[in-house]
Design brief:
With 199 residues, the protein is mainly α. Helices cover 67% and strands 0% of the residues. α2 crosses α4.
Length: 199
């Protein structure tokens, strides 16, 4: 008697594989490995870049560009287990470029249009009208801030990253990261009047 043949298909699960294993597969040309790396990390990158850029469409472009860059340079990654931090560094670098470009476009009067992921827009319904007004003011201050200051401050104060992570993502020393956060905090305090703690 022949055994019954199951028509179910056993699908590979990425959950059982580490980032390092997925990176190894992707470097070896495994399209599934690349797809799983994208699925595992794209959401985190999109959330972070959307808050940094205050614009979801631009954030989606940055995430796509991040993976295009990453997949062309994947073989250069020294620590495959740290792929998330590496992808974040690429994304933050691309965000920084967009900040510089958007400031230039604003100077020329060619602004990109309304931001849709501002701090004010992200506020919960429990936020008072006064708090919402302060968030709107903070958004305006951040938009005019030097890109390096804005990035460092946002990564520390909005994303809640440790100083060492901020320095790593901004590709600068710990002292430089602290200085950028402090400089940004002074501007925030000057215009918004919020009490800022040291970096």
């Amino acid at each position: 008697m022949k055994a019954l043949v199951s028509h179910s298909v056993l699908l590979r699960s990425s959950d059982a594989l580490t980032d390092a294993e997925l990176v190894g597969r992707a470097i070896g040309g495994d399209r599934w490995g690349r797809e799983m790396l994208y699925r595992r990390h794209a959401g985190h990158l999109l959330e972070m870049t959307a808050r940094l850029l205050a614009n979801r469409d631009e954030a989606e472009e940055v995430v796509q560009d991040t993976f295009v860059t990453a997949f062309t340079q994947l073989a250069t990654l020294r620590e495959p287990a740290a792929v998330r931090a590496w992808l974040s560094r690429i994304a933050v670098s691309l965000v920084h470029r967009r900040f510089r470009r958007s400031r230039f476009l604003r100077l020329l009067g060619l602004d990109r249009g309304a931001d849709d992921v501002t701090l004010e827009a992200l506020a919960t319904t429990e936020v008072t009208a006064d708090q919402r007004a302060e968030l709107a003011l903070l958004d305006r201050v951040l938009r005019k801030m030097k890109p390096a200051w804005r990035l460092a401050w946002m990564l520390r104060r909005v994303e809640g990253l440790e100083l060492t992570e901020v320095a790593s993502l901004c590709a600068c020393s710990l002292a430089t990261a602290k200085r950028r956060i402090a400089d940004a905090a002074r501007l925030v305090h000057l215009h918004v009047g919020a009490t800022e703690e040291t970096p």
